[in-house]
Amino acid sequence: MSIVRAGFYSTIATAARLLAGLVIVKLVAWLAGPEGVGKLGQFMSLMSLLAVLAGGGISAGIVKYVAEYRHDAQRLSRLLAAALWYACIASVLMGCVALLMSRQLSLWLLGDTHYENLIRILAVAQLGIALANYILAVINGFMDVRRLAFIQVLGSVLSVVLALGLSRWLHLYGALLALVAGQVLLLVVGLPAWRRSPYFQRGMLRMHFDREMSLKLAAFSIMTLTSALLLPLINIAVRNHLALQFGWERVGYWQAVSKVSDAYLLFLTTAINIYYLPKLAATHDRASLANELRNAYRYLLPAVVVMALFVYAMRGWVTRLLFSADFSSANALYAPQLLGDVLKIASFMLSYLMLAKAMTRLFVISECVFALSYLALVYVFTASFGLIGAMYAFAVNYLFYLAFNLVVARRYLGAL
Predict the structure, then answer these.
(1) Is the pLDDT of residue 93 over 80?
(2) What phi and psi, each to the nearest 5 degrees, are found at residue 94?
(3) What is the residue range of 96's domain?
């Protein structure tokens, strides 16, 4: 499958997910204003963290090894049996931890024990989320982009319907509850769609411990969990710092601009994940790898520049549409954030080489270093420039990350 075709289907799926997410943000902005949007970011960070931890963080590993083993029935069967065992054990353990700490998490993240039961529901949902992640990763590994898009579109439509219903009944609590339920709906939609695929076999639902395959997956688990743990925790630390310095209302402005970035970049990060991770994993010679990376920059970098310029030109309208007139102060924050977005995509296209080639140690070290450097830059720049300093920190940190990934990619290709 070509990048253009993969991009077409991933764009449809991403648009559906984006619209579903924006409905939730709009509901929260309408129900609770900037402060509610700031706290929504805290809850979504917890959700992102638990969603990855639910399956042990092996989705990228499943994608990589399915892409490599799809023509080797014996190794593929061993891989998937080990992956399902790994995911189920990890989700049960994580669900138990979240249940035990639900009160503390509610108080720490949201400053209110009123949301304790919501976190308990999220904990119980971990097994369903893990199984959904497993199914989507297998489909992605087979590069069945059309089926993957169908699952995500239908799941997003059902999530919007659920969000509208629950928010009318339970208001802000209902909107947050819909976020959790929307993750489980992917399993309800995904399992029947996967069973109808030409490559599905009943043995793919068999669980079995396999030491060799589990160790392979564990390397990806370490990489994914490092990234999944650091990003939400760093963002939580940034929000808490900004709240102490400027108050939760201004955190809402920062969160609003960050959500706009996340929304439009979702189109590109989804295409990178769906197309380039399995493609790079299955490609081993230097010329082909270099060609894939060149194609990535040829198609995706101009796309992110155009999208960023469009968002900047329409920032006032975008802010009013997605949030409300109360968020007009956020318009001054867009320029450095959008510059950081371009640098982010430029660096991501190279960083996926570390994932595809299982450079575990280097990936983990780089994630830790650049997560901590971002937090440090936020402290330094906000002290000098105020709230917009957090956006300056974002852009400068990704400039450093891009330079690092250029060095890694050149050394890896040079060694082939």
Answers:
(1) yes
(2) -65, -35
(3) 3-415
